[in-house]
Amino acid sequence: AHDSRELRGCLSDEVSRWLSSWFPSNQDEADLYANSALLSNRSMARHLGQSTGCCEVTIVIEVDGNLAGSVVLTPGSGMEAHTGEVGYWLRRSLWGKGIMSEALELFMGWAWAAFPTLERVEALVFAENAGSLKCAARAGFLEEGACRKKILKDGIFHDCTLMAMLRE
User: Fold this and answer.
1) What are the strands, taking DSSP E only, across 12-168?
2) Is the distance from CB of 75 to CB of 54 less than 8 angstroms?
3) Which of 4, 71, 127, 155 could crosslink 88 through cysteines, CB 3.0-4.6 Å?
4) Tens place of pLDDT for every residue, the chain, 168 residues?
């Protein structure tokens, strides 16, 4: 099992600046997150409803036995039950090595097989995060457009780039 100190060690300011506000930003939040069983299992699925046939899934990425990052797929609901949203992060020391692009590509191959009702997966990427945009593109996501002032983080609006992959 991974502990909260290992998680906090992964989340430098350079990494966490691109993450959703719900992600742990201090040791107390990291303790809560790690103790939630998310990191105590190698993968975790939580069914969100019978109608979607999909569930939220988080995969923990390890490199040399150490926590390196994660990929999460969150399903849509209602009229967007066929659409999922993917998010991902990787320890700063591992950026630029193709690890996340490969993990994301492998994860998507698994997701298409695991969730036959899933037809579309989106990644909302901070527009100024060039590395993440390249990562998503290398994994097979296509740029679909800009979402101006999409994210409000720490009191500042940020533009996003909508990247998407279709089942085809």
Assistant:
1) 43-47, 55-63, 66-75, 83-90, 120-126, 142-153, 156-166
2) yes
3) 71
4) 456 666 666 666 666 656 665 555 555 666 665 555 444 333 333 333 333 444 678 778 888 888 888 888 988 888 998 999 999 988 888 889 999 999 999 999 999 998 888 999 999 998 999 999 999 999 999 999 999 999 888 888 999 999 999 998
Measured CA to CA, the distance from residue 136 to residue 164 in angstroms comes to 9
**Nearest to residue 57, comparing CAs of 25, 88, 99?**
88
Length of the chain: 168
pTM of the model: 0.77
| Contact yes or no for 73/85 (Cβ under 8 A) | yes
Calpha distance 2→130 (Å, rounded): 29
